[in-house]
Specification:
The complex is a heterodimer of chains A (387) and B (443).
Chain A: H1 2-22, E1 27-34, H2 41-57, E2 61-64, E3 67-77, H3 82-95, E4 100-102, H4 107-119, E5 124-126, E6 141-143, H5 148-163, E7 168-173, H6 177-194, E8 199-205, H7 213-221, E9 226-228, H8 233-245, E10 252-254, H9 261-267, E11 275-278, H10 287-300, H11 306-325, H12 332-344, E12 349-351, E13 354-358, E14 364-366, E15 368-373, E16 379-385
Parallel strand pairs in A: 1-3, 1-4, 4-5, 5-6, 7-8, 7-9, 9-10, 10-11
Antiparallel strand pairs in A: 2-3, 11-15, 12-13, 13-14, 15-16
Helix pairs in contact in A: 2-11, 3-4, 5-6, 8-9, 11-12
Chain B: H1 14-23, H2 31-55, H3 67-72, H4 77-98, H5 100-112, H6 115-135, H7 138-163, H8 171-190, H9 206-232, H10 238-257, E1 267-268, H11 276-295, H12 297-307, H13 309-314, H14 319-345, E2 347-348, H15 355-368, H16 373-389, H17 397-411, H18 424-428, H19 432-441
Antiparallel strand pairs in B: 1-2
Classes of the chains: A alpha/beta (387), B mainly alpha (443).
């Protein structure tokens, strides 16, 4: 008797609760595939915060064809592993039935995850991945950042015009695909301008190294006038400080991976006055960019780095694409196709990281920004370079 | 068969006694019976799963027995529980009980034929269960394939760390050798891509030659293992751990610096050859062969070497050869697993096979149990599923899993199911104890 009562109670509870859970009108689900744990949790946090801020900003609704749809974010952790990113994408697509996926951020997750999205015919946009393989031959996969083949020449041209140098030294991490790719594109671009052999030193190290004095000495002995170091914030601080300790006087130039608040925190005065190329400049920003930075700063207590800004732009691209779709049928397959086509058809998108259009490959054409680290340690806008 | 003494002190302990009494009839259910019951469950899910899930307020069939649902949306806890009970627990309990007599008789009948017949029947049933289960969603399919690959890797590492008693850290290195070899094999021969150019052979031949690619991957891994083994087997214990760790890093930086293989960017666009049946067959093969290996004379010699190398030597065991063969054998299977992994994920880079992969595999071996095939399976399946199911917890997952490992190390220092023999024949046996009663009663 007692047992029966328990089962009955359980059943009633189940139905009452499930009635609450299942309710609600039509919703648009957007999957976020982010590295919340693992090697780069700060990137995952930036993604999550930007996404939540965005949801708040649009009031949780997207209007498609005169009808309001509730927006639901499904944020999943990919542990910063390739196989997990693929599993998360599969789960988002088949279990949660999301309309579109934003993420993953780094290429080592975005490439396998992109394969899943493309196979299961779900539009995906990676805010941060720069590996060409992410979008190559994948009509369903897009990205928001510019590619390294564009950024390399940007830096090379900037240094040539600004300083008039002819001899470059490069220091990069050979074990990490982003610095390595960028260093090679830079070398190519620099040698196109100044002739073969103008990159006088092309030195590498391996992820996790902390002492760069051997490489720096070599670069200095080779007579490099400046150093290009497309590294992440933790290595930037070490490289710059050690170069200064060794008596290197020339500038050290960086890439978009410098654009983290941590760079200045770790590097301090050594980094003041240095330049790097990136997607947007936080200090001195105007319009929508400033609005985003202020809101983010007010809510989470720090100035967002480029991951946050790019995620924000990706979500807005997604929103534009959904709106351009005109009508949602409720059949997820049809709607996904519609969103993909709308995304590929975007002609002009005004994002906070610049205006962009998409190429056939799903890559954007957009401008880069040269940022100068000011004497207060702020990232100030210096120059815009467009393709 | 079991040495459980629960029924004896049943009266002393309320809940436990009740559970024991409830469990009593199920002791006589043979493996065959459980497989049939499972098949009925997944078949039921195939038929009524979707409408039931909708009726319970869930938009989809819960993929991993509702655990993800529970952690994601606490409101749906009763629905998820109810679903699991209605689809899995209840039908399984009923079918297993009803068919006890039948399945026992069937198991006995099958054993009258050569063992291979029993084995095949069990495997076909297991595959049918797996097929129906993964048919529900692609997510399950991916998890199932990754789990089976984890089983191969764990087993092969167990040969070295468990049966041989050494501490080898080079398994991710072997996996990466296998993964790169198999990837290059399929990409060069069967796929038009921009790295290796036009396919040499017709693309449609690919799936048939894929096993050759995997074996090639395994062989390359074994050659790599030979390179570690020659210098390192002069040492023991900690030193082997350090040398093998160094080997893992050497392989990693080797691929990072080889531009032909994509350097740090890795290789992508492998064909989707590692489908469910392919992975299943390779997993079964690996379990069967590794199990036979560790139960052979060589396997026993391996245990002797582990327990006391000097004594083993004195008892005419050729310790050097034994260790060498086992190490190469383990590396071979790690290479095969790597090849499968590359074709499931369809993207590999050197960083995938780094220290984190090592930690993962080691955790599976020590969680499941040293010196035990069953233990390896338990460890691989357990950790993969737990890690997948706890994903919604984000950072807390990395508190729960290590705490679990610590608890296991305290209460079962050699792992959950350590030092057991995996005897296929006894696995297929009808449960004799119940036979006299059950044959009459349950039919």
């Amino acid at each position: 008797m007692k047992k029966f009562r328990w089962i009955a109670l359980l059943l009633v509870a189940a139905f009452v609760l499930s009635a609450c859970g299942g309710g609600g009108g039509q919703t648009i689900k957007i999957g976020i595939n982010a590295p919340l744990t693992g090697d780069i949790p700060k990137v995952g946090e930036g993604t999550k915060f930007a996404a939540e801020l965005w949801l708040e900003e649009i009031g949780g609704v997207i209007n498609v064809g005169g009808k309001d749809y509730k927006v639901e974010l499904v944020i999943e952790d990919n542990e910063s592993k390739g196989e997990s990113a693929a599993a998360v994408n599969t789960k988002l697509i088949t279990q949660d039935e999301v309309l579109v996926i934003v993420g993953p951020q780094s290429s080592k997750q975005a490439v396998p995850a992109g394969a899943v999205a493309n196979d299961l015919e779900t539009p995906m946009i990676s805010p941060w991945s720069t590996n060409p393989a992410t979008t190559k031959d994948r009509p369903w996969v897009f990205r928001t950042p510019f590619l390294d083949p564009f950024q390399g020449p940007v830096v090379a041209n900037f240094v040539s015009d600004e300083f008039g140098f002819t001899k470059a030294g490069v220091l990069y991490d050979i074990a990490s695909d982003y610095p390595k790719g960028l260093a090679e594109y830079f070398k190519q671009a620099w040698e196109d301008i100044h002739g073969a052999g103008s990159v006088v030193a092309f030195e590498s190290f391996t992820t996790g190294d902390t002492d760069f004095s051997a490489q720096l000495t070599k670069i200095m002995d080779a007579g490099a006038e400046f150093i290009f170091a497309p590294q992440y914030y933790n290595e930037v601080a070490l490289i710059v400080q050690q170069a200064h300790e060794l008596g290197f006087e020339g500038p050290i130039v960086g890439s978009d991976s410098w654009g983290s608040a941590e760079t200045v925190n770790l590097c301090g005065e050594d980094c003041y006055g240095l330049f790097f190329s990136t997607h947007y400049a936080a200090e001195g920003a105007t319009g929508a960019t400033k609005e985003f930075i202020d809101k983010y700063n007010a809510k989470y207590g720090y100035v967002p780095d480029d991951v946050g800004a790019l995620t924000w732009d990706s979500l807005n691209i997604v929103k534009t694409a959904i709106e351009n779709c005109g009508k949602l049928t409720g059949d997820i397959k049809v709607d996904r196709k519609c969103v993909r086509d709308a995304m590929a058809a975007i002609k002009e998108f005004h994002g906070i990281t610049g205006d962009m259009t998409f190429t056939e490959e799903g890559d954007p054409i957009k401008c880069a920004v040269i940022v100068r680290i000011s004497e207060e340690g702020k990232f100030t806008f210096y120059k815009q370079v467009c393709p | 068969m079991t040495t459980d003494s629960l029924p004896v002190n049943a009266s002393q302990n309320g809940l436990r006694a009740r559970l024991a009494r409830f469990w009593e009839p199920y002791r006589s259910v043979p493996l065959l019976g459980w497989l049939i019951a499972l098949l009925v469950s997944v078949g039921l899910e195939q038929l009524v799963g979707r409408p039931l899930a909708w009726a319970l307020g869930m938009s989809k069939i819960p993929a991993l027995f509702g655990i993800v649902v529970i952690l994601d949306k606490p409101l749906l806890i009763p629905s998820a529980l109810l679903y699991t009970i209605l689809i899995y627990l209840l039908p399984m309990a009923i079918v297993a009980r009803l068919l006890t007599g039948f399945s026992n008789r069937l198991a006995r009948r099958l054993l009258q034929y050569p063992l291979i017949v029993s084995a095949l029947v069990h495997l076909v049933l297991a595959y049918a269960v797996l097929y129906l289960w993964t048919d529900i969603s692609d997510y399950r399919l991916l998890v199932a394939r990754l789990t089976m690959i984890a089983i191969i890797v764990t087993l092969s590492l167990n040969v070295v760390n468990g049966y041989m008693g050494e501490f080898s850290c080079s398994h991710p290195g072997f996996m990466s050798l296998g993964a790169y070899t198999a990837s290059v094999f399929t990409l060069v021969l069967f796929i038009n891509d921009n790295r290796f150019g036009e396919a040499i052979l017709p693309t449609s031949w690919g799936p048939f030659f894929f096993p050759i690619g995997l074996i090639l991957g395994g062989v390359v891994s074994a050659i790599g293992a030979l390179l570690v083994a020659i210098p390192s087997f002069r040492t023991r214990g900690d030193y082997l751990a350090i040398i093998s760790l160094a080997f893992m890093f050497i392989v990693k930086s080797l691929f990072e610096n080889l531009e032909v293989f994509g350097g740090a960017r890795g290789i992508s666009s492998q064909p989707d050859y590692a489908t469910l049946p392919v992975v299943f067959v390779w997993t079964v093969l690996s379990v069967w062969i590794i199990n036979n290996f560790v139960r052979s004379t060589l396997g026993k010699a391996l245990n002797a070497v582990r327990d006391d190398e000097m004594a083993a030597e004195a008892m005419t065991v050729n310790t050097r050869k034994t260790k060498m063969v086992a190490f190469l054998f383990a590396a071979f299977w790690a290479g095969v697993a790597g090849g499968l992994f590359a074709h499931v994920l369809r993207y590999i880079n050197p960083d995938t096979f780094g220290i984190r992969k090592l930690a993962e595999v080691l955790a599976m071996v020590y969680f499941g149990g040293l010196n035990s095939v069953t233990g390896s399976i338990v460890g691989a399946v357990g950790l993969t599923l737990i890690s997948e199911a706890l994903r919604p917890l984000e950072i807390y997952k990395w508190i729960i899993i290590p705490v679990m490992l610590i608890l296991i190390m305290i209460y079962r220092p050699t792992g959950l199911v350590a030092f057991t023999e995996f005897d296929v024949k006894s696995l297929f046996q009808p449960k004799e104890a119940a036979e006299k009663g059950a044959d009459h009663g349950a039919a």
